[in-house]
Amino acid sequence: MRKISVIFILSISIIFSSCISYKDVEYKGIENFALGNPFKDNMPIHLDIIINNPNNYNIKIKKAEFEIYMNTTKLGKSTLDRPITLEKNKTKSYPITIITSSKEIGKSLLSSLGILIGKKVKIKVKGNLIAKVFGIRKKIEFNFDEAINASQFLR
Questions:
Q1: For residue 87, is pLDDT > 80?
Q2: Roughly how many angstroms between the first and final C-alpha of the chain, as a whole number?
């Protein structure tokens, strides 16, 4: 009887795992990069990260920690304020807000004088997240950057 139970559980596991195929989620870009209204000594940075989920199931991001850089200057650290669900078979923008100090923004602007004459600015976001699918959690590290036009930054 025990042998039959083990064979049954293994069979179900193999069938279930073969039905689920995973494709890597794809980073597609950054849009709507903007500085928010300053409060106290802080400056919010708003941006949307475009992500494609090519899988046939939603992926929930429960927790994420990340840092944002402008050129080589670190602007700040942040975490998700609420979970995000990456919708299945869809490319979509997901909003993120990072709180940084006005001093860091000032340093970064001074080190990026090219922004005043319309050159591109390199925005880098790196960190890690915890994704969950069908009750299975996985920690994923990410690191991506993109050059954006100064006009996007100065809106």
A1: yes
A2: 70
CATH number of residue 38's parent domain? 2.60.40.10
Number of domains in the chain: 1
In a domain, 49, yes or no: yes
Is the residue at 5 inside a domain?
no
Report pTM. 0.69
Angle at CA of residue 142, ends 122 and 63, nearest 5°: 120
Q: By mean pLDDT, which of 4-13, 73-82, 104-113 is the weakest?
A: 4-13
Residue 90 pLDDT greater than 90, yes or no: yes
- Per the domain annotation, does 1 fall within a domain? no
> Which structural domain range is residue 110 located in?
23-153
Residue 36 token pair: 């928010």
Distance CA 77, CA 45 (A): 11
Phi first, then psi, for residue 135 (nearest 5°) are 80, 0
